[in-house]
Design a protein that fits this description.
Order of helices and strands: HHEHHEEHHEHHEEHHH
Largest sheet: 3 strands, antiparallel
Strand content: 5-15%
Radius of gyration: 20 Å
Structural class: mainly alpha
């Protein structure tokens, strides 16, 4: 899918004037620290995304945000997308929304539909009848928390199979999921990730020795290794970012080695490979 970064400002907008109006209108909205600006340079460029990489990262963030929000089938307001994902790149929002909609349609089988034009609220409509494997890659297995779990599993794998808890929350905050705030879909996100998923053995959660302040790390649990694979999780990550799994050579080789290991017949009396 071809993606060309361009700013779609409203007709008649002069360079350098739109960001000033946006700041005066939204100066008190808060949450800017949750969606760090991806545009840097002259003041006139603060409201747009100037490179394909910046645009791609924002599209991937918006896709993940919409997938997380859709878990309970509650409409997602444009204001929430602006606050948690778009940040200062307001002029690029129409392009971001269009590209995210294409990604959701072509990769995940969802249509992004504006349900309530007056409040600019959107929903995802399932446009496909997923086969079993496709549903697993999409993180769509019938429970509201599976999509969040897939995102955390992907983050762990991409970070080398271990990730600090602080890094997990730094990432999830950009999707509107905070450790200290009750979430409409997930309830208590910190309890869900560090207790429920751990108790279900999807995740391992352990203290990192000799850290001050105390920090913890997360790894895949034994149930994850039985129910999914590194290749399936890598495919999920690749779909979100509109890339090929081979674009991450180290992770792809690791996932391929695991696939080959699972395909080999087990030796008599030897345990089946789990990683």
């Amino acid at each position: 899918m071809s993606q060309k970064p361009r700013s779609r400002g409203r007709p008649g907008t002069q360079p350098g004037t739109q960001p000033e109006r946006d700041r005066s209108r939204d100066g008190a909205r808060g949450g800017a620290d949750e969606a760090p600006s991806t545009s840097r340079g002259s003041p006139g460029s603060s409201g747009s995304l100037r490179s394909s990489k910046q645009l791609e990262l924002k599209v991937a963030e918006l896709v993940q945000f919409l997938l997380v929000k859709d878990q309970k089938k509650i409409p997602v307001k444009r204001a929430d997308m602006m606050r948690h994902v778009v940040g200062e790149a307001r002029d690029a929002f129409p392009e971001l929304l269009r590209l995210a909609g294409e990604r959701l349609r072509d990769v995940f089988g969802y249509r992004l539909v504006e349900l309530e034009p007056r409040s600019h609220a959107y929903i995802l409509v399932n446009a496909l009848e997923p086969v079993e494997e496709d549903a697993e890659v999409r993180g769509d297995q019938g429970t509201p928390t599976t999509g969040l779990l897939m995102i955390v599993l992907g983050l762990i794998f991409m970070k080398g199979n271990t990730v600090k808890e602080t890094e997990v929350w730094d990432f999830l905050r950009r999707l509107g999921v905070h450790p200290t705030k009750r979430h409409l879909v997930f309830g208590d996100p910190k309890k869900l990730i560090t207790e429920d998923f751990v108790r279900q053995r999807y995740l391992d959660y352990r203290r990192i020795p000799h850290t001050d302040p105390v920090d913890y790390e997360l790894q895949w649990g034994p149930r994850t290794r039985l129910e999914t694979s590194k290749m399936k999780v890598l495919k999920f990550v690749a779909k979100v970012h509109n890339q090929d799994p081979k674009d991450w050579p180290a992770q792809y080789c690791e996932a391929l080695a695991e696939e080959e290991g699972r395909a080999r017949p087990a030796q008599p009396g030897a345990p089946a490979p789990t990683s």
